[in-house]
From TrEMBL:
It comes from Nocardioides zeae. It is found in: Cell membrane; Cytoplasm. HAMAP family: FtsY. GO terms for biological process: SRP-dependent cotranslational protein targeting to membrane. GTP binds at residues 212-219, 294-298, 356-359. Residues 28-103 are annotated as: Disordered. This is Signal recognition particle receptor FtsY. It holds the Pfam family SRP54. It is a peripheral membrane protein. Keywords: Cell membrane, Cytoplasm, GTP-binding, Hydrolase, Membrane, Nucleotide-binding, Receptor, Transmembrane, Transmembrane helix. The chain crosses the membrane at residues 6-24.
């Protein structure tokens, strides 16, 4: 009986072990589902990817032919050269330059603006001369009108005498306007050479020295003259020799930038003569047509400053001849401008006059007076604040504008 008991217990133990083994095997099969082949975009099945642990040692993501591919991605490895990395920036576009106005359109605007600002003189004279009877009172009114216009005593007397004679001799059928125009043109003197001397000799540039008192518009005039020359296809260099006024140097630099003209400048307070010298030196080296030199503003009663102006001219002429000395006068200053003109002409031998602000409260007679005083022509007139509001002076156009 005991032997049967041991046999039953042994069979039971074996049965339990067999059942436990079967359960464990079934569990492992349920935890590892079969690998399904993915579908490609065309709808076919792709071969299943080998498990990571079954890949060959040389395999990596994206490795097609055993090539070495950087970890973390696919592609070609690019070596970065040693040294600093330079980033090329796109080229800065050249600034758009102004296109200065031509001479003819300037002259048209000159006549229009002078007619508005100076027409009162001509209309006043015509009103008196058109009276039925020209007695002494009428001629005195004519004289007063001319003197008020800053023509000056001697030119006024000359004009009145000529008008008296012609109107008496030619009689009542005379065209008063035509007679007045002829006499005014004669007074302004159309025979004067008003050409700007901007060309040099022996392959050197012409040198234009611009002088005047502060406030007359000297630096602005230099910039405007450069525009006239650029419009004539001339090459120009600007010399910023007004070194005592930083604003003048910056102002001239702005004028140059607008038309693509180089500006030679020195430190603030440097010797004006040295700046003028360097400007001409660069002009010669660059083979330009004209060098325009701005100078420091001078007071005509300061002997030391006036002497320094003479030095500027002498130093410049060690390299090239100064072909033109332009005196800038504010037309609104009247007889004070005459005093300035006289003193400047004694120091630097003025060859031409630039009258600025002639479109304002100026009297047109200043043109006649300053020419008589110096014996040099008015070559340019300024008629506004615009960059091209500077025009060559024309005697006929000026008189026509006076008569309206």
């Amino acid at each position: 009986m005991g032997e049967w008991l041991y046999l039953v217990i042994g069979i039971g133990v074996l049965a339990v072990v067999a059942i436990v083994g079967l359960v464990a095997t079934a569990g492992r099969r349920r935890g590892a589902p079969p690998v399904e082949a993915p579908e490609d975009r065309a709808g076919g099945l792709l071969a299943p990817e080998r498990p990571v642990d079954e890949r060959r040692p040389g395999d990596r993501d994206g490795d097609r032919d055993g090539e070495d591919v950087p970890a973390g991605g696919t592609g070609t490895l690019t070596e970065v050269p040693e040294g600093p990395v330079t980033i090329e920036e796109p080229p800065t576009p050249a600034p758009e330059l102004d296109r200065p106005e031509g001479t003819q359109s300037r002259l048209v605007r000159l006549r229009q603006r002078l007619s508005r600002s100076q027409g009162g003189l001509g209309r006043g004279l015509l009103a008196i001369l058109s009276r039925d009877r020209l007695d002494e009172d009428a001629w005195e009114d004519i004289e007063d009108t001319l003197l008020t216009a800053d023509i000056g005593v001697a030119p006024t007397q000359q004009l009145v005498d000529n008008l008296r004679t012609r109107l008496r001799v030619e009689g009542g059928a005379t065209d008063v306007r035509a007679v007045l125009r002829e006499e005014l043109v004669t007074l302004v003197d159309p025979t004067m050479d008003r050409t700007l001397k901007v060309s040099g000799a022996d392959g050197k540039p012409g040198v234009v020295l611009v002088v005047g008192v502060n406030g007359a518009g000297k630096t602005t005039t230099v910039g405007k003259i450069s525009r006239i020359l650029v419009a004539q296809d001339r090459s120009v260099v600007l010399g910023a020799a007004d070194t005592f006024r930083a604003a003048a140097v910056e102002q001239l630099a702005t004028w140059g930038e607008r038309v693509g003209v180089p500006v030679v400048r020195g430190p603030e307070g440097s010797d004006p003569a040295s700046v003028g010298f360097e400007a001409v030196k660069q002009g010669i080296a660059d083979c330009v047509d004209t060098v325009l030199v701005d100078t420091a503003g001078r007071l005509q009663n300061k002997a030391g400053l006036m002497d320094e102006l003479g030095k500027v001219k002498r130093v410049i002429e060690k390299q090239a001849e100064v072909t033109e000395v332009l005196l800038v006068l504010d037309a609104t200053t009247g007889q004070n401008g005459m005093v300035q003109a006289r003193v400047f002409s004694e120091v630097v031998d003025v060859t031409g006059i630039v009258l600025t602000k002639l479109d304002g409260s100026a009297k047109g007679g200043i043109v006649v007076a300053v020419q008589r005083e110096l014996g040099v022509p008015v070559k340019l007139v300024g008629l506004g604040e615009g960059p091209d509001d500077l025009a060559p002076f024309d005697a006929g156009a000026f008189v026509d504008a006076l008569l309206g």
